[in-house]
Design a protein that fits this description.
Blueprint: E1 16-20, E2 27-28, E3 31-32, H1 36-50, E4 54-58, H2 75-85, E5 89-91, H3 98-106, E6 112-114, H4 122-125, H5 129-136, E7 141-144, E8 166-168, H6 170-184, E9 190-194, H7 199-212, E10 215-218, H8 220-229, H9 244-254, E11 258-259, E12 263-267, E13 276-280, E14 289-293, H10 295-305, E15 310-314, H11 327-338, E16 342-346, H12 348-356, E17 365-366, H13 371-377, H14 383-386
Parallel strand pairs: 1-4, 1-7, 4-6, 5-6, 7-8, 9-10, 9-15, 10-11, 15-16, 16-17
Antiparallel strand pairs: 2-3, 12-13, 12-14
The structure holds adenosine-5'-diphosphate (ADP) and magnesium ion.
């Protein structure tokens, strides 16, 4: 279980609180295109406001590579955030220094100040101790609510916690409670579904889930590599040659707990308007490529999901961004949503896929983290969490 102190455990009234949020949101023409991550921070922010803290927010946005990029300014989220909070959000065009200190001095209890993109400084990713100390000097308590960045040991996620008492926000707690409970003592049958593109990134996850889950369903490009490892000719399909040996080993180890596609939707090019047809996995025509799981596989996977008590899903079943190849991902999303089991969807693209078909509300937990979720599923310690005060620690923050 989650064993860190949270904002519930500490005194907030009259304190200046630096909150690391994950406001790394998709933008479109200078406006927030998807406010999921802003909404996800509201329970923590509203609680801090109600409890009478002065709230200072910091986050990264995109990959500015240590330079000031106006298109990646957090100023762009101010309007939407203040609408969601129902109160003004002050903004300062830096995250450390005298201008920021002055803005913090002006900040009243119950008010919210958003700092500029921490990644405008190269010191953020370098986890520079001086930069972390400058950030920390703004507040007397640090709250990490940025689950999506918790796998990174950066200045605003990890370094700062060496200079201030540090506790978790509600989003961090919720994410880790869901994922932790699922893995520590899974309700059974526990079915894992894995797909997506980069199998080398996910080998650790496959191994861990193979140990924990009763069955592992594999689709997406990940399945291509497993099918190729079992000796099939995948023609032009995306196959990770360097992972074939590992995939072969995993197939042997898993036995019949590993369920692979039996048919595929293949296309004659990688395009939304490509020619497509359904073929058995041993009949991918020369020059064609797998783009989605086929109808027979959908039926098999749905049957395997029947009676499940816990489903953990990472990685789409096909190239869902192209409508003609979204059927497998959509069908599984519908099946998971319709079942009464506890369901967890992790991974940036997987979460987007579930949201795209409007089923996110029917999943028990859609994680706001991609990489963080994967590293947690893999059993790795998250640096942004490790550094928070332990629940049973006497230090009161
Ligand atoms: P997540 O972000 O959920 O962890 P990944 O990033 O691993 O998922 O994979 C998502 C990507 O995998 C999507 O962009 C999707 O188009 C791609 N993908 C899924 N199936 C295939 C396939 N058969 N061939 C090529 N790409 C695929
Ligand atoms: Mg992805």
């Amino acid at each position: 279980m989650f064993n860190k102190k949270t904002i519930r455990d500490v005194d907030l009234k009259g304190h200046r609180v630096l909150v690391r949020v994950d406001f790394n949101v998709p933008l479109d023409e200078g406006a927030v295109a998807d406010d999921t991550r802003l909404r996800a921070s509201l329970p923590t922010l509203n609680y801090l406001i109600t409890e009478g803290a002065a709230v200072i927010l910091c986050s990264h946005l995109g990959r500015p590579k240590g330079k000031v990029i106006p298109e990646l300014s957090l100023r762009l989220v101010v309007k939407r955030l203040s609408e969601l909070l129902g109160q003004p959000v002050a903004f300062v065009a830096d995250c450390i220094g005298t201008e920021v200190q002055a803005a913090v001095e002006r900040l009243q209890l119950g008010e919210v100040l958003l700092l500029e993109n921490t990644r405008f400084y190269p010191q953020e990713r370098a986890n520079d101790p001086n930069f972390a100390a400058d950030l920390a000097s703004l507040a007397d308590l640090f709250v990490n609510d940025a689950f999506g960045s918790a796998h990174r040991a950066h200045a605003s996620t990890e370094g700062v916690a060496h200079h201030l008492p540090a506790v978790a926000g509600f989003l961090m707690e919720k994410e880790l409670n869901y994922l932790g409970a699922a893995l520590e003592d899974p309700e059974r049958p526990f079915i894992a579904i894995l797909g997506g593109a980069k199998i080398s990134d996910k080998i650790g996850v496959v191994e861990r889930l193979l140990d924990l889950a009763d069955r592992l369903l594999i689709g997406g490009a990940m399945a291509n590599t497993f099918l190729a490892a079992s000796g099939l000719d995948m023609a032009e399909s995306l196959v990770e040659e360097e992972s074939l040996d590992i995939a072969h080993g995993l197939i042997e180890r898993a036995g019949d707990r590993l369920l692979m596609p039996t048919d595929l939707v293949v296309a004659d090019s990688f395009a939304a308007d490509a020619e497509k047809k359904i073929v058995a996995v041993n009949a991918v025509p020369t020059g064609w490529r797998a783009m989605d799981i086929g109808p027979e596989t959908i039926t098999n996977f749905k049957r395997a999901l029947q009676g499940a008590r816990l489903v953990v899903w990472n990685g789409p079943m096909g190239v869902f961004e192209f409508e003609p190849f979204a059927a497998g991902t959509t069908a599984l999303a519908e099946a998971v949503a319709a079942s009464k089991c506890k369901s967890i969807v992790g991974g940036g693209d997987s979460a987007a896929a579930v949201r795209k078909v409007g089923l996110a509300d029917q999943i028990s937990h859609v994680s706001t983290g991609g990489g963080a979720c994967l590293e947690f599923l893999e059993g790795k310690s998250l640096p942004g969490v490790a550094v928070l005060i332990d629940r049973d620690s006497p230090s009161s923050a």
